[in-house]
Amino acid sequence: MAEDDIPEETAPEGPKTAPEGPTRAGLAAVLGAPNAGKSTLVNRLAGAKVSIVSNKPQTTRFRIRAILTEGRSQVVLTDTPGIFSPRRRLDRAMVAAAWGGAQDADLAMLVVDARAGLTDPLRAIVAKLAKGSPPLWLVLNKTDLFDTKRLLPLTAELNGLLQFAETFMISAETGDGVDRLRTQLCEAMPVGPWLFPEDELSDVTDRMLAAEIVREQILRQTHEEVPHHATVETESWQERKDGSVRIDCTIYVGRSSQKAILIGDKGSRIREIGQRARVELTKLLERPVHLFLNVKDRPGWDEERGRLRALGLEDLE
Ligand SMILES: Nc1nc2c(ncn2[C@@H]2O[C@H](COP(=O)(O)OP(=O)(O)OP(=O)(O)O)[C@@H](O)[C@H]2O)c(=O)[nH]1
Ligand SMILES: [Mg+2]
């Protein structure tokens, strides 16, 4: 009798999460216009906060891998920056990172803010995807915001423009429809060995995570030009004997007026940003965090190779 054929009652105790069958693993890229809900979906699929989310477009700046391991399948999800018409060197590198995410992927999910419908940025993405990409799945998001009956014309229109192998209607925010998407993703992965250890959640380092969580608070607590002209770098990371960690981050902004807004009246804004980021990091890192923020104005940082290198974007334009 082959090992695979051991009857259930005599089978040795194995991990409950690994049903019989070969392992599967692959890469699934998540693409779309800014603000479509890509990062919200990636976090929901992975069951952990891996990528920051805000209501401002261009929140995600570089590719982030989140690892979804379920049953015998491992799906490496690539969250990408939203695709838009780039101007600055930073923007060009972000858009290049997004398209790069689709290369080598076993499948790509096009996430659409279904309430916004077929916008010009989405049309531009569709036109480029038509020139060749991995198998495509259409993910119509934000269904909690309207009656899904209204989705039929949009679904038909998009399916007329591109050949989607599957169409899903979901709310990444509430989780509605996401379980079916997760199950199908797991089943769609090619047979092969896992690419990451079972307990790995993402490829984001703790230093990068700290900088991103600070940037998330900047996106949430400031408006207009400040969020898009700010970048955050973790300067130092010191583990302390008492089990806590001291993290020093530098925030670069483009102008002294932006620095003034970020610092706020008697330092109130930067204190609030630090406070909330610290609470979030304490949760994510599972230990006490001492967070120190230093704001510097540095005109033209978004054209500087060194700053883009810190984001892992140096060779992408
Ligand atoms: N109501 C609702 N809001 C959503 C849903 N999914 C995402 N959002 C919100 O949409 C906004 C953008 O979400 P993100 O996940 O940051 O979008 P993104 O596509 O990653 O954006 P970029 O990184 O800028 O390209 C946030 O305010 C989310 O809370 C959804 O299903 N329903
Ligand atoms: Mg994002």
UniProtKB/TrEMBL annotation:
Annotated region (G5), positions in chain: 170-172
Region of interest (G4), ranges: 141-144
Membrane topology, as annotated: Peripheral membrane protein
Region (G2): 58-62
UniProt superkingdom: Bacteria
Span of domain Era-type G: 24-191
Stretches the record annotates as G3: 79-82
Region (G1): 32-39
Signal sequence interval, chain numbering: none
Compartments where found: Cytoplasm; Cell membrane
GO process terms (BP): ribosomal small subunit assembly
Residue ranges, compositional bias (Acidic residues): 1-11
UniProt-recorded Gene Ontology molecular function terms: GTP binding; GTPase activity; ribosomal small subunit binding; small ribosomal subunit rRNA binding
Record-annotated KH type-2 domain positions: 222-299
Annotated spans, Disordered: 1-24
GO cellular component, one term: plasma membrane
Annotated positions binding GTP: 32-39, 79-83, 141-144
Gene3D superfamilies listed in its UniProt record: 3.30.300.20, P-loop containing nucleotide triphosphate hydrolases (3.40.50.300)
Alphabetized HAMAP family for the sequence: GTPase_Era
PANTHER family, sorted: GTPASE ERA, GTPASE ERA, MITOCHONDRIAL
Family, similarity comment: Belongs to the TRAFAC class TrmE-Era-EngA-EngB-Septin-like GTPase superfamily. Era GTPase family.
Function: An essential GTPase that binds both GDP and GTP, with rapid nucleotide exchange. Plays a role in 16S rRNA processing and 30S ribosomal subunit biogenesis and possibly also in cell cycle regulation and energy metabolism.
Summary of subunit composition and partner proteins: Monomer.
Name of this chain's protein: GTPase Era
Protein species of origin: Muricoccus pecuniae
